[in-house]
């Protein structure tokens, strides 16, 4: 009996994230990345909804910095609770010869989460100098 219950329940539990139950929420972030005083061109940036637990983070948007090191991302996700948007930055400033990219994250404050598909506010991450070390910085070979 327990085996049958498991066989029936497993597809239901695994399928829950795709049901999209909850509120449609959005967030946006912009900023400028520099490396040693020069624009950090072509740096990969991603906007995620940070899901804790066994659920994988939801990618909301991704892009690269332009010729001036600027980026702007926006996206939306449906969640029962508030989304937890975060910006991931993947770079090799002062680190070109080491395998994998440096990665750090910036959590976007709840006050920049809006209802609906289009964000009403944009979080300005400011100008970030990638030559420094960021809190929680790791290496990412997959990004």
TrEMBL record:
It comes from the Eukaryota. The keyword Transmembrane helix does not apply. It is found in: Secreted. The keyword Zinc does not apply. Gene3D superfamilies: 2.60.40.3330. It holds the Pfam family TTR-52. Residues 1-15 form the signal peptide. Keywords: Secreted, Signal. GO terms for cellular component: cell surface; extracellular region. InterPro entries: Transthyretin-like (IPR001534), Transthyretin-like_sf (IPR038479). Belongs to the nematode transthyretin-like family. This is Transthyretin-like protein 5. It comes from Ascaris suum.
